[in-house]
Amino acid sequence: MSTQTEPKLVTQIDFARAGQITPQMKEVAEREHRDPEYIRERVADGRIAIPANIVHIKKGMRAFGVGEGLSTKVNVNLGISGDKADAAEEWKKVKIAEDFGADAIMDLSNSGKTRQFRQQLIDETPLMVGTVPMYDAIGYMEKPLVKLTKDDLFEVVRAHAEDGVDFMTIHCGINKSVTKTFKETGRLMNIVSRGGSLLFGWMEVTGNENPFYEYFDELLEICHEYDVTISLGDSCRPGCLYDSNDATETAEMIELGKLCKRAWAAGVQVMVEGPGHMALDEIAANMKLQKRLCHNAPFYVLGPLVTDIGVGYDHITAAIGGAISASSGADFLCYVTPAEHLCLPNAQDVLDGLMATKIAAHAADIAKKVPHARDMDDKMGQARRKLDWDAMWKCALVPVTGKKRYEESPAATEGTCTMCGKMCAVRTVNKVFEGTTIDLGMED
Fold this sequence. Notes:
globular
């Protein structure tokens, strides 16, 4: 009789490989109009991730699936900045994220003691919560960057895992090989990833390898213990059109693909992060390349921004790129606000960025035939044909916004708006089919 004990099933990928459908898989299947077995199969081989820390599950989080065949998810970034540490404003942003349909919140707080805010966020929000431990390390350990040790960095990762963080952006792919390529080939904007730049600086000053790369197996042990999904950070994402799809970005992507396999082998869920800034005609190819090199792992992208000069309107430049990237294979969009490149976004910026990104995600879902993605659009068409304004508000992404604008500018002709009034095309054709008189005279 064998005395060998069966390995403990902890993560979603553990259960999926053991043939077990978890409550989280069932919840994702119901929301996505998919069979639970469809979800289980893709979690098992890494094509779908369900970022759900076991600590956060106990606090009542909702389960969200990210990956193949699922609706495109949207993330909102927020957090306390050293230059603008206003926790009350950040809680306004949390409420906007929850009320207006975000799927995830990333707490990117980078100043002082951030743990209380993070813990309260995990306690209170049912959305996925992500962090970047590298941002927190200097304040958490109360040390300057170059004095941080590998053990310091891993202590911060463990603290985030213990708090219940569902996914962590960890810049594991920027190793000495990638930095050699970067220095040999050069770039217009160098490294624009905040976490990536901190690690690059640390590596250059200390002469050591990236500890998240060198001790990746130890990192995986922490993630497996709590079922933290690793979001493999793109340290070398392009920060301008000139640098997109260059040798440095591609070199890191190759490394990230290798790390995906190692994470899956350890029973850890993975997402891979992508650009950045990228011209329209390059996006689809970049999505396909990432899926190929990273073995169809879920892809999480920032935009990409399709022009570098949309300052003040970068929620639009990113939404254009987001729609193309998601329709070409990206699974998760990080929102960009009008404040991008300028300042810490305020609550209105967060709302504008979130809605632009949700529109991009929804447009992509229609294009890639996500089940039932177009249902509400067809209902909107029916409501507009009938000039049924109350039904239109129910179909709108944000009913209150459209209703407010409509009511602020009342039309003289009932059922129409002030754009066309009596000359409303819908009204005219409806009257023709009703057999009633069409009165388009100048007088009532």
